[in-house]
Amino acid sequence: MPRPTKAQFTALIVASMMFMEQLDGTILATALPSIANSLHVDTVATSVALTSYIIGLAIFIPASGALADRLGSRSVLMVAICIFVTSSLLCAQANSLPFLACMRTLQGIGGALMVPIGRLVIIRSTPRDQLVRTMTWMMLPATLGPLLGPVVGGFITTWFSWRWNFYLNIPIGLVGLGLTWRFIPQIYEPTPPPFDLKGMVLAGGGLALLSVFAELFSHAEGSITLRLAMLGAGCLLMAIYCIHAFRIPAPLLDFRLMRIPTFRISVFAGAASRVAVGSLPFLMPSFLQIGMGLNAAQSGLVTFTAPIGALLTRPFVPAILKRWGFRRVLMFNGVSAAVVFTLVASFRLPHALWLFSLILACAGAAQAIQFSAYNTIAYADVPASSMSAATSLYSTMQQIMLSAGICIAAGTLTVLGQIYGHTTPTLGDFSAGFLVTGAVSLLAVPFAASLAPSAGASMSGNKH
After folding, report:
1. pLDDT tens for residues 429-441?
2. DSSP sequence for 147-216
3. Where does this protein reside within or beyond the cell (predicted)?
4. 19 CB contacts (<8 Å, ≥6 apart)?
5. Which candidate in 94, 237, 310, 382 could, as Cys together with 206 as Cys, close a disulfide (CB 3.0–4.6 Å)?
């Protein structure tokens, strides 16, 4: 592989932040029983450690671009890394669940600022004809987070302590801090519009409530009244925000960007695809362990292959897009995702597990191509003056759709349980969950088909 350019090296620095954030999330999920035992609480209650992080993430993602415009991209990134590392250290020292939840919220704020602003730096500092290759470099290390998380988390929790899962962020964060100070450019907006504080309260509050609803719903926690209240209040705040956003010239989340065809199609097609991807961390471990009777170690080894498929495919993404273009690649991947989910749903244990692993590897490869394409073409026609707003809106939609995937999968299992009267989901229930989310992913195809054949040609190099 050729030596990385300056833009690609910047992308690798941003990818290290994504790696740290994703590794932290996947590691923690494996450590919840150990945390419950250490803090003398019920295991179910420790899910607040996941929910509180999502709250911090949801509130501050919309504000990320606006803050970078005012304070400078490098400055905000360095502050974000410091917040993430400091809160990780404090999480490791937690002796009570409320304290851990508060520090996880702070950690979510750091995570909300790191990745969107890192992506903004790359988009603003990279020529459009190099963006596909640069974004591919950014996604390579980030792929390792989900790959290593369950394995590293299980090892650390078993042989050391759950606290070391948080200590692991410190050296990674310090290296990222030094590289950011040395290599990330300080990019400002010369004359930024007034900061939309009212919009931040409305959008951040609405997204936080909807995220908490998704978390409660996916784990079947809280009363129905509480969940409906969260859903209703979140939708109400977002409705008020939409009215507010169209009344001011520079809202925090600018929905007027949806008038740009490539951005709009990337958001909507990507939404359908991310619902399917968001459901996988919820469905897959339970499908293998509850539905098929595998133990946690066997389940981890089987799912290990999906990120490997993504990792091996990413270097070929620029050539694939150059050969076939964004429109055809996204249409094909939309269909292939639904096919893969159908194959997963129909799998039963008497079949060889290596075949199931191969299916997951193909799924990982398809996702690598698909999301590299989405994350690039979204910005093909966005004016330079609107890049901050576009990055904030796109990152926010990503988070919403990933949470929606969990809700749809959990809702499918809940409805089937009520229909058939069983409290524990069966193998057939999980299969239905995969079929439903796979069907949702198929909705990406007509959106992708509406792209112009020449869409993103300046980025992909495809001329026909």
Report:
1. 889 989 999 999 9
2. HHHHHHHHHHHHHS-THHHHHTHHHHHHHHHHHHHHHS-----SSPPPP-HHHHHHHHHHHHHHHHHHHH
3. Cell membrane
4. 141, 142, 144, 145, 172
5. 237
Task: Let me know whether 120 and 269 are in one domain.
Answer: no
- Token duo for residue 414: 């809940």
**Do 28 and 121 belong together in one domain?**
yes
Q: In this structure, are residues 368 and 273 in contact, taking their beta carbons and an 8 Å threshold?
A: no
pTM: 0.81
Whether residue 192 is found in the same domain as residue 301: no
Same-domain status, 260 and 170: no
CATH number, position 352: 1.20.1250.20
262 and 256 Cβ atoms separated by less than 8 Å: no
Reading the block at residue 78, the tokens are 């360095």
The single-letter DSSP state of residue 426 is: P
Helices assigned H by DSSP within 188-223: 197-218
Which DSSP helix (H) or strand (E) runs through 259? none
Of the candidates 68, 110, 66, the one whose C-alpha atom is nearest the C-alpha of residue 87 is 110
How many residues make up the chain in this entry?
464
pLDDT tens figures, 43-83: 656 767 777 887 788 788 888 888 888 888 888 889 999 99
Number of structural domains the chain divides into: 2
